[in-house]
Amino acid sequence: MIKILVSDQLSEEGLKILKEVKEFQVDVKTDLKPEELKGVIKNYEALLVRSATKVTRDIIEAADKLKIIGRAGVGLDNVDLDAATQKGIIVMNTPAGNTISTAEHAVSMILSLSRNIPQASASTKKGEWKRAKFMGVELYGKVLGVVGFGRIGKEVAKRALSFGMRVKAYDPFLSREIAESLGIEVVELKELFEQSDYITVHTPLTEETRHMISTKQFAIMKKGVRVINCARGGIVDEAALAEAIKEGKVAGAALDVFEKEPISVDSELLKLDNVIVTPHLGASTEEAQVNVAIEVAEIVRDALLGKGIRNAANYPCLEAEACKMLNPYIILAEKMGVFAAQLVAGRFQELDISYSGEIATYDLSPLTMSLSKGLLSPILKETVNFINAVSLAKERGIKIKEAKSSKEEEFVNLIKLALKTDKETRVIWGTLSGNKQARIVKIDEYYVELYPVGEMIYIENWDKPGLIGNLGTVLGKNSVNIAAMTFGRDKPGGKAISVLNVDSPVSVELAEKIKKLENILTVKGIKV
Predict the structure, then answer these.
(1) Which CATH superfamily is domain 445-528 in?
(2) Do the beta carbons of residue 113 and residue 123 sit within 8 Å?
(3) Would you place residue 316 in the very low, low, confident or very high pLDDT band (cuts 50, 70, 90)?
(4) CA–CA separation, 204 vs 379, rounded Å?
(5) 358 flagged as catalytic
(6) How far apart are the C-alpha atoms of 520 and 500, rounded to whole Å?
(7) Residue 493: HSE in the Cβ half-sphere, 13 Å Cα cutoff
(8) In which band, very low, low, confident or very high, does the pLDDT at 375 lie, cut at 50, 70 and 90?
(9) Mean pLDDT across 168-185
(10) At CA 434, angle to CA 433 and CA 439, rounded to 5?
(11) What is the spatial distance between Cα 176 and Cα 321, in angstroms, rounded to a whole number?
(12) Catalytic position from the list 71, 151, 202, 280
């Protein structure tokens, strides 16, 4: 008997799917305290959660039999993915289940904000009849800026077009051809901020997107712009937003998510009449809850019965006998993708992958899936996984080409990635070291010996004396310790690259200081 624990509320439609399988014993135990969950988890092969249960490292380490964690929803911030991966536990989520629900909520917020519906309703219920006070604006002919054009952003755009809005979208992975076929104009982020009457965000919260909309961005927006956030708290700087509203730059805001939830009653935003708020209701529809419950139940059921793995956040769907050989290369491929995504400039157009050596005799689709996941994950975060990465890339117009050869090149086993954007093409070569650790051995024409792990500084420079000393001085003054360094050059005194592994994050300010050093051409902070 396979024992499954459901530790958060899950709709009956989802539970029914699991309970109908005679091999399963399904126990529903909600509101367990962490210590209680830690005490019982050792008895179960699968755990199903929503957002309330925190699946920490302690709980995972106590899970002797656990094979699968299923998350009914998109976000995985309540699951320690690294700990699960280390223990060989597959973690699955349901990235598509609440797409329509969240898109509809965002559009509802846009309409409510435009016509002052919540404020007018509250006033009328108090016996007032102040029609002039709640004068609204039409959506027709207005420009909607959509930041993040994934599933939800696309659905919001479709609905906005039906209102006669003009839609401009920013997404680093979105091809102009696909957007234009939908009647959407692709623009850079600065242009979107400058030209939009409404701005709605639909991106994950990452280091890059935190406070993506703040004082500097409000300064370049149109006077009277309206801001909507139904994605993640923290993308919009709440203090800067409140100030922009008070100054009259922003006409209003509609927020479903907040930097700290629940939002404090002392928040300046709650004191402003032209701010509409809801308590994180994006996925809170009966249909969405049923959809994610059914989806998570089906993927967990199929995985436990050996019918295939879908929506895995940490498992690229492999045959067991090939796993031992390919697993280190799967890790290498993902790291190469993450590295390449942060190295290149421009919109991704084509991913050309070639495999050579002994690995080419295997089914290499897991490596391509892993590389695609790595490429998209710096921006899409938990919405991309091993299973959906290739399809998400194709949705965004990124062409993926794959070739393999059993002929050995300069290295016994080699993954070669050529990433083409609308601005440049960069080529990265990767292999394994003697102890099976991922390493990058060539970037474009430069040979290197780079271990892609943690925080890194990528520098293009002239090969001149004094560079290393100058770098060390600047990093030392900023309390940044160097863990490892690698160099590559085309010829003595010519162009070169330097890549440093460092022990702490590389701030924008530090990158600017390095860039001002003599013989430095470009500087990028990269995190793998």
Answers:
(1) ACT domain (3.30.70.260)
(2) no
(3) low
(4) 7
(5) no
(6) 14
(7) 0
(8) very high
(9) 89
(10) 5
(11) 42
(12) 280
- In order of 104, 214, 222, 314, the CA distances from 194 in angstroms are 25, 14, 6, 39
The CA distance from 521 to 497, in Å, is 10
- C-alpha 297/C-alpha 50 separation (Å) is 12
105, 232, 396, 439: the active-site residue: 232
User: Which tokens is 457 given?
Assistant: 């500084």
Give the full edge-to-edge strand order of the sheet including 166-170. Answer: 185-186, 166-170, 143-147, 198-201, 225-229, 250-255, 275-277
For the segment 384-393, what is each residue's pLDDT rounded down to a tens digit?
877 778 888 8
Task: Break the chain down into helix, strand, coil percent, rounded to 5.
Answer: 35, 25, 40
> What CA–CA distance (Å, rounded) separates 416 from 355?
6
Pick the CATH number of 316-444 from 3.30.1330.90, 3.20.20.70, 3.90.1010.10, 1.10.10.10: 3.30.1330.90
Residue pair 499/450 in contact (Cβ under 8 Å)? The answer is yes
The token pair at 239 is 């203090």
For residue 408, give the H/E element and its range.
none
Active site residue 105: no
* Pairwise CA distance, residues 503 & 500, whole Å: 10
Residue that is written with structure tokens 């952003």 in the block? 153
* 344 residue type, one letter: V
Q: Are 168 and 176 in contact, with CB atoms under 8 Å apart?
A: no
Orientation of helix 99-115 relative to helix 286-304, angle to 10°: 160
Give bridge partners of residue 312 from the DSSP assignment: 92
Residue (of 20, 16, 18, 84) closest to 54 by Cα position: 84
- CATH fold for domain 99-277: Rossmann fold (3.40.50)
Pick the CATH number of 1-96+285-315 from 3.40.50.720, 3.40.190.10, 1.10.3720.10, 1.10.10.10: 3.40.50.720
Side by side, the strands of the sheet bearing 495-502 are 482-489, 495-502, 455-462, 520-527
> Nearest-CA neighbor of 70 among 53, 50, 52?
50
* pLDDT of 410 over the 80 cut: no
C-alpha–C-alpha distance, residues 353 and 348, integer Å: 14
Encode pLDDT of 95-148 as tens digits.
888 899 999 999 999 999 999 999 999 999 999 999 999 999 999 999 999 999
Peptide bond preceding 465 in cis form (omega within 30 of 0) = no
pTM for this entry: 0.75
